[in-house]
């Protein structure tokens, strides 16, 4: 990938000296960060080192994201996003984001394999202990999401990401799979009938906020790369699997509380999960259209039929008391009914979609009522 050479950097620094000064100031602040006057290399406190590591990575992440988006600088970029993205160290951004995204899994694995009395002791050759690594793992993963998202957004519409489509899709699908419940992943992988109650399941799988981040990451990839991911031999299978996982995340939220194992999050967060899952599925159906395999479209329709039935039956699920959940489900239903299948056929859920739309056209929320009326058209 083309990069900016030293002569180009000197020319840009000459044109915009204030930008260079701000850049040097940012780096000095981040690298010279101290907590309560302590020094990173001289203080043996494990908690301090973990806190310093987290804050420094967070500051650098926000700085990189601001540089790519050019936030705070009144500079006009003559190049378009697609062409300017070629000047970015895209591979390096993917490398760093991949490390940060996988940090929680590595930290959890090390924490489990370490004896309890040694979990507060820094690992050999490392700066922090397994306990401290667990305490900062979520924040580092969020930094990984930020870097990945800003990298994908910067090259949307260009060819910078298409040549790395297999790696990008692999990262997004693996991250999504690591955030879904074990029951869902087992069903998608063809291992049915497992009971995971009482088993040691990774705590990340039960976090609804992190699952929403993973779904947003996949949606970003689907929108940035477009329908080529469903027509490519190297990515079509992974994308199909991700679509089924998205449908499973949506279906799980219509189940009763006791049927969801080791899941933690508020009812409002669950409603947002329904919203983002439905939105991601609706966007993928609209973007990929007939390229989606018929068996995957059939699975999506079956899941949507179950969700609409739960919504139509009063008291079927308290999650549909939220307007955002109802609105996103209607949008997904509209896309599934209007977008044809790969063989030229169409969805068979139009009857339940009509019933739900008639039910919601007088909803107290104006956006839900408007969406219901649009669906009836």
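-> sequence recovered:
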């Amino acid at each position: 990938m083309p990069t900016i050479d030293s002569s180009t950097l000197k020319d840009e620094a000459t044109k915009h000296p204030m930008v260079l000064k701000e850049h040097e100031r940012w780096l000095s602040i981040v690298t010279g960060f101290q907590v309560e006057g302590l020094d990173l290399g001289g203080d043996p406190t494990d908690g301090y080192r973990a806190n310093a590591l987290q804050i420094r990575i967070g500051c650098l992440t926000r700085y990189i994201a601001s540089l790519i988006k050019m936030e705070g600088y009144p500079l006009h970029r003559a190049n378009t996003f697609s062409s300017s993205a070629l000047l970015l160290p895209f591979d390096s951004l993917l490398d760093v984001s991949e490390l940060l995204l996988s940090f929680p899994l590595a930290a959890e694995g090390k924490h489990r394999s370490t004896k309890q009395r040694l979990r507060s002791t820094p690992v050999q050759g490392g700066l922090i202990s397994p306990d401290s690594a667990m305490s900062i793992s979520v924040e580092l993963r969020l930094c990984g999401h930020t870097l990945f998202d800003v990298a994908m957004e910067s090259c949307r519409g260009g060819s910078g990401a298409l040549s790395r489509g297999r790696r990008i899709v692999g990262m997004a699908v693996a991250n999504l799979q690591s955030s879904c419940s074990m029951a869902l992943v087992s069903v998608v992988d063809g291992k049915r009938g497992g009971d995971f109650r009482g088993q040691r399941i990774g705590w990340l799988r039960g976090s609804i906020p992190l699952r929403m981040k993973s779904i947003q990451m996949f949606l970003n990839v689907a929108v940035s790369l477009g329908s080529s991911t469903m027509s490519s031999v190297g990515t079509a299978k992974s994308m199909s699997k991700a679509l089924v996982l998205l449908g499973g995340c949506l279906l799980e939220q219509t189940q009763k509380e006791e049927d969801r194992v080791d899941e933690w999050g508020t009812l409002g967060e669950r409603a947002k999960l329904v919203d983002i899952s439905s939105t991601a599925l609706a966007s993928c159906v609209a973007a990929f259209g007939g390229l989606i395999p018929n068996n995957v479209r059939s699975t999506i329709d079956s899941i949507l039929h179950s969700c609409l039935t739960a919504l139509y039956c009063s008291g079927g699920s308290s999650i549909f008391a939220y307007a955002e959940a109802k609105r996103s489900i209607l949008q997904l239903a509209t896309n599934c009914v209007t977008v044809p299948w790969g063989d030229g056929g169409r969805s068979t859920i139009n009857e339940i979609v009509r019933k739900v739309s008639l039910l919601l056209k007088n909803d107290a929320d104006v956006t839900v009522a408007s969406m219901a009326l649009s669906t009836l058209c």
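The CA atoms of residues 240 and 295 lie 10 Å apart.
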